[in-house]
Amino acid sequence: MDKIALVVGASGITGSNLAQKLISKGWITYGLARNPQQDIENLTPVAANLLDPESLEKALHNIAPTHIFITSWMRNDTEAENIRVNSLMVRNLLNALSAKKSVQHVALVTGLKHYLGPFEAYAKEGFLPETPLREEQPRLDIENFYYAQEDEVYAAADRDGFTWSIHRPHTVIGKAVGNLMNLGTTLAVYATICKETGRPFRWPGSEAQWNGLSDVTDARMLARQLIWASTTDAARNEAFNIVNGDFFRWKWLWNKIAEHFGIEAVGFDGTIHPLEEEMANDAAVWKEIAERHNLAESNLDRLASAWHTDLDLGRPIEVMTDMSKSRKLGFTAFQHTEGSFYDLFEQLRNENLIP
């Protein structure tokens, strides 16, 4: 039988990389988004609003996917609203496809906030888990929209008989424009601004993150695990962490990134200097840089997500992620983190997003 994939959130970092990987493996691939990708060869775009059941029914009328990959979410002002909105999106999607009886597997991408807490309580006292983070660690006793999304998948799986997998990446490194959580591109844009204006490339985060061990997730690694779990019997109905497989300290990588851009790095100086404040007045600066270099995107907010970068780099603990569970089941892919960043920077230059 043909494998027919529906990638939900196909315009994002995770979804776009996944769609390309599926297509390269011969999958029939649909990409659902409010404003679908039009530039991925052989991806069939599907325009739909996950909060509008009628929109979904109409958009999916002639589509019967065998595999669903949910990589999309919507940020709201409170965690209670995050729960309401993001669980509703998953519920509406799976309800719209229920009657077709075509779905064999649903893969849901969440993240390490499963262990660290939601935005309102992220990595704060009372919610600091033991690291390395492991899948068997219980849910925190606090509201979290990741838990609500999982529960929607579990309920639909019980109803419709499909298998599922949950994927928990750390910070995802990859190219996307207009993405809400985009640390790699944010740092590339910040480094470019520093180089163009002569400002130092100053570490914005905490001492614990500067000195401690960390890891990240290359979007290509996440795509590989999503496909592996959806086609491997032993991986079904399981939750998996997914990171590159190596560790680093930011005090090392920060200097490497600075060297790459030919700028002066400034490390932790005893104070957190949030990027959201550092870049607060840089919209006009970026627009001038974009015009001078004829870049493809002059809107700083479409490239940089300083708020999320601050969230990650400002944590009071080091964060390491255990990958033993999927390794034991046969997922052996590995990605060197320094290479993840350099590959991203090269792609951003090739696509004329940074000079």
Architecture blueprint of SSEs:
Elements: E1 4-8, H1 13-24, E2 28-33, E3 43-47, H2 53-59, E4 67-70, H3 79-98, E5 105-109, H4 113-116, H5 145-160, E6 163-169, E7 172-173, H6 183-197, E8 201-202, H7 207-211, E9 213-214, E10 217-218, H8 219-230, E11 238-242, E12 248-249, H9 250-261, E13 265-266, H10 275-278, H11 283-293, H12 300-303, H13 306-313, H14 324-328, H15 337-350
Parallel strand pairs: 1-2, 1-4, 2-3, 4-5, 5-6, 6-11, 7-10, 8-13
Antiparallel strand pairs: 9-12
Helix pairs in contact: 1-8, 3-5
Task: Characterise this structure.
This protein has 355 residues and is an alpha/beta fold. The chain folds into 2 domains: 4-169, NAD(P)-binding Rossmann-like Domain (Rossmann fold, 3-Layer(aba) Sandwich); 177-215 and 247-319 and 335-351, no CATH class. Helices cover 42% and strands 14% of the residues. It is built from 15 helices and 13 strands. The protein has helices at 13-24, 53-59, 79-98, 113-116, 145-160, 183-197, 207-211, 219-230, 250-261, 275-278, 283-293, 300-303, 306-313, 324-328, 337-350; strands at residues 4-8, 28-33, 43-47, 67-70, 105-109, 163-169, 172-173, 201-202, 213-214, 217-218, 238-242, 248-249, 265-266. The strands form 4 sheets. A 7-stranded parallel beta sheet has the order 3-2-1-4-5-6-11, sandwiched between helices. Strands 7-10 form a two-stranded parallel sheet. A two-stranded parallel sheet has the order 8-13. α1 (13-24) crosses α8 (219-230) and α3 (79-98) packs parallel to α5. It starts with a strand and ends in a 5-residue tail after the last helix. The model has no long low-confidence stretch (mean pLDDT 95).
